[in-house]
Amino acid sequence: MQTEPYIQPMQSPEANPILCIVGPTGAGKTHLAMSLAEYAKSIGLSIELISMDSALVYRGLDIGSAKPTKAEQAAVVHHLIDILEPTEVYSAARFAKDAKRLCEEIRERGNIPVVVGGTMLYWRAWAYGLSSLPPANPEIRARLDEEGKALGWPAMHAKLSQVDPQTAERLKPNDSQRVQRALEVFEITGKPMSALLADSPSEDGREGSTIPPWINLVSLEPSDRKRLHTNLEKRFDEMLAAGFLDEVKALRKNTDLHADLPAIRSVGYRQAWEFLNEEIDAEQMRYKALAATRQLGKRQLTWLRAISGRKTFDPFNPAELKAALDYCKHTVSQKLK
């Protein structure tokens, strides 16, 4: 069984570090990046944005993914948006390769790459590289899916605890995607995922990891969790008003799409799909979508807070938000020196 080759992280000690803007969903990453691009243009520099978001790669997932508007994409060059059909699968390994290539190409054009997003698995792959975990095995994955549906994912999590207690400890019982992957890795290799990752612990990108010297990491971390949740509720209701359900209805016309695809498992889309399948009602859909969004934000913040050396700013504090923009301006201005 062949495995994915180790992906070497990008090295650029002679060049200015690459700016990366991260944060939980709804923290204002896109707004900060667009403000920075406008400033860069005013001083004669051109920024190109590289999306680090697992939903934005898919065509047709626009409203529910809070995809940058057509006007925003016209004003600033965006990469890794609308590059795949929702029937396809994108991976952290592919993102790492794409982001590395794009950073080099953008710099060759004399422009400035800025990576923006909150998919932290992509961050790990790009910043630290990936160990040689085996690629997905469709037959094993399909069988585990069927077993998970029959027994329930908490039971599958208990099964994982028997063969890889370390991985099981850090996963929630209902985290079907990651529980499935850990079981799949064990079946393919005969070794726990935790043991394979332990062979190269610096690649994990969590647990007190430090930032590679070729990256400047700016993290927008809201201090007021209640305010963030209120904003997310408002945003979801605005998505519904903007035609989110019609968007999902249009996706459902593609008979090749189904609920187990990564695109449809995206937060919001999974719940809308269940609603249109008449598995839940409208109130349940909204509740479950908001709960999933909050859980996503919590996971993102937990991951970020384990990274030492990041530059943190509270987007709900006007002074700190200005400081974040000033820091980003200073970073890109180094290009002029």
Count of discrete domains: 3
Helix-strand category:
alpha/beta
- Helix/strand order, N-terminal first: EHEHEHEHHHHHHEHHHHEH
Average pLDDT score: 89
What is the CATH homologous superfamily assignment of the largest domain?
P-loop containing nucleotide triphosphate hydrolases
Rg (C-alpha, Å): 20 Å
Q: What is the beta-strand fraction?
A: 5-15%
N-C termini distance:
50 Å
CATH architecture verdict of the largest domain: 3-Layer(aba) Sandwich
Low-confidence regions: 1-14, 200-205
CATH class of the largest domain: Alpha Beta
CATH topology of the largest domain, which one? Rossmann fold
Sketch the major β-sheet. Answer: 6 strands, parallel
**Total helical elements:** 14
- The main sheet orders its strands as 3-2-4-1-5-6
From the spread of the alpha carbons, the general shape counts as globular
Number of strands: 6
Structure description:
The protein is α/β, with parallel strands linked by helices and about 325 residues long. It contains 14 helices and 6 strands. Helix 5 packs across helix 8 (about 175-190). A 6-stranded parallel β-sheet has the order 3-2-4-1-5-6, with helices on both faces. The chain folds into 3 domains: about 20-135 and about 215-225 and about 310-335, 3-Layer(aba) Sandwich (Rossmann fold); about 140-200, Histone, subunit A; about 225-295, Helix Hairpins (Orthogonal Bundle), CATH 1.10.287.
